[in-house]
Amino acid sequence: MAAAHGLIAEFDKWDKSKDGKLSVEEVRNMLAEFGFKRKQAEKFMKRHDTNKDGTMSKEEFAAAIGTLKPEKIQAARLRQLFRQADPDHSGIIKAAELKSFVAQFNSQIAQNDVDKWIKENDGNNDGQMNYEEFMKFMKGRL
User: Start and end of every EF-hand domain (predicted)?
Assistant: First the structure.
């Protein structure tokens, strides 16, 4: 349930016009940040715009999120984190990128700890984390 509340909290961030509704484009942009494709966003909008006004109210959004399984929400959050940690969108998180990303949230974590995390989770020994390695690492921390 906490994961669903986190996604619902994202609603206000994406409501650029602050009218309590998301346009189709705002829904697309929000879902894209969570790793969903354009077609998936359109399908989501079509399915959950219950009053068919072409926008999604916060109530419609909350109801839609309530139908998602917690593991789907967690996977979406992890995709979002990966995208944030990979600023050049290469699909690989370099040590410097992970250090910078971690520092944004917790300055108490030593840079050596980040190097250790990469070493422990770097399945192909390239000194970086790909998507699968990052997911494995993060799921072990949640």
Answer: 36-71, 73-108, 109-142
CB distance 29 to 9 below 8 Å? no
Name residue 21's beta-bridge partners: 57
Query: What's the pLDDT tens digit per position in 107-126?
Result: 677 888 888 989 999 999 99
- In the block, tokens 């994406």 appear at 14
Does this model's pTM top 0.85?
Answer: no
Domains and CATH numbers, the chain: 2-72 (1.10.238.10), 86-139 (1.10.238.10)
* Cβ contact 133:119 at 8 Å: no
Please state, in angstroms and rounded to a whole number, the distance separating the CA atoms of residues 69 and 53.
26
Distance CA 63, CA 47 (A): 11
Single-letter amino acid, residue 63: A
* Assigned token pair, 61: 């959004």
Of the candidates 118, 126, 122, which has an alpha carbon nearest to the alpha carbon of residue 97?
118
